[in-house]
Amino acid sequence: MVSQMLFGERFRILDSSGTWLRIETLFDSYIGWIESLHGGYEGWDEGPAGIITSRQLTCLKEDGSFMILFPGSELFGLREDFSGFTINDRGFLMKDLDISRFTPLLSVTETAVNFLNAPYLWGGRTMAGIDCSGLVQTVFKIHGIALPRNSAQQAEMGATINFFTEAKGGDVLFFSAGNENISHTGILCDGGIIIHASGIVRLDRADHQGIWDDEAGRYTHRLRLIKRFL
After folding, report:
1. pLDDT in tens, 45-65
2. Are 91 and 84 in contact (CB under 8 A)?
């Protein structure tokens, strides 16, 4: 698995083979293969009426089954009373709706903290499993900023901060592990703390050298770049 699509994210079909479709996502221009049962997403022409922001949302499908939607998912055809939504002529009811679910928290770091302890999953983008660049991408999507999927691609965006002492909460740090290539990323919080996905989504100390792991008693990632997207 190279990545995941969140509910409501659209794509266009590039090719097909048997029951599989080669697609390009519209949100981040990522290319990969999915099972054809997802076909039709590229036909959604409604503008997203809302993005789930802070907590997962339980929905009731027409067949009576439940579906869990994770932060970053896009909803279409949202009813005025926020009781449900319609997508591709299918109706969904939302359980225990709280309108705050569609309003981002005050800061990027507050949103990121909601993902604490989520297990690491290569290619993941949800609280059920997420990788380092997936965490950064999803958090910033919730705050209205579209970033590429991979950490090396993300590092090409934004304004460069030259010194760690000039960095502030919400800045994104990029790291290497053993060579010059960027292979890891995380979001700086206040007080020199970084939130990042490594084993789980966790908090560690960061400085001008990199990420310090108290348990390991060493630096696990070497700082290469600081970027500001806000």
Report:
1. 565 567 888 778 888 887 788
2. yes
